[in-house]
Amino acid sequence: MSTMLELLLEHKIVAILRGIEDSQADAAGQALMDGGIRLMEITMNTPGAAVMIERWRSRFDGQAAVGAGTVLDVEMAKTAVAAGAQFLISPNLDEEVIAYGNEQGVSVWPGVMTPTEIVKAWKAGAEAVKLFPMGTLGTKYLTEIRGPLDSIPIMATGGVDLHNIKDYFAAGANAVGMGGKLLNLEWVREGKFDLVTERARQFVDAVSKI
């Protein structure tokens, strides 16, 4: 088991930062960490993502793992790894990205939806998968596929909030990926980082009791 997978299974939450402005990224990342978040991804379709990932690796070294999200292909993967990304997350399954990550010693958690995709990702070398879009699929779907697919770590992404997060884990999720429900960009733009920290702490407390 890789160090990143250990962190994922221990801390259970990956914060997804999409569309964050460079000038606000550091303060937002610090606010999330102050609330207990230990894995954070900056999506590659965020302007300046590689620059922010590289800076975070230095600034937050030893405090949180920093990865890249929305890694759609190998070229994006190369850019992210060159910036120092410690893990790669995709909304899609690209076996070339998995192979590249394994070559570089970087964890890859690809996006999947069907049982066929989950097993295909596993056989290609992914140590965990991102089940997406969970907001549409729902927890009953996860419960059903967990019957035959009980040994593959799954990060459920989409639709998670404070009211249903325990349902995700009860359905079989090992971790969750969270964007706007965790990091309110309006609070970030308004400089209300204390609210960001408090929201993060609420989610961290919720998964600590699971």
TrEMBL record:
Transmembrane segments: none annotated. Keywords: Carbohydrate metabolism, Lyase. It comes from the Bacteria. Pfam families: Aldolase. Pathway: Carbohydrate acid metabolism. PANTHER family: 2-DEHYDRO-3-DEOXY-6-PHOSPHOGALACTONATE ALDOLASE-RELATED, 2-KETO-3-DEOXY-6-PHOSPHOGLUCONATE ALDOLASE. Homotrimer. Belongs to the KHG/KDPG aldolase family. This is Ketohydroxyglutarate aldolase. It comes from Paenibacillus glycanilyticus. The lineage of its organism: Bacteria, Bacillati, Bacillota, Bacilli, Bacillales.
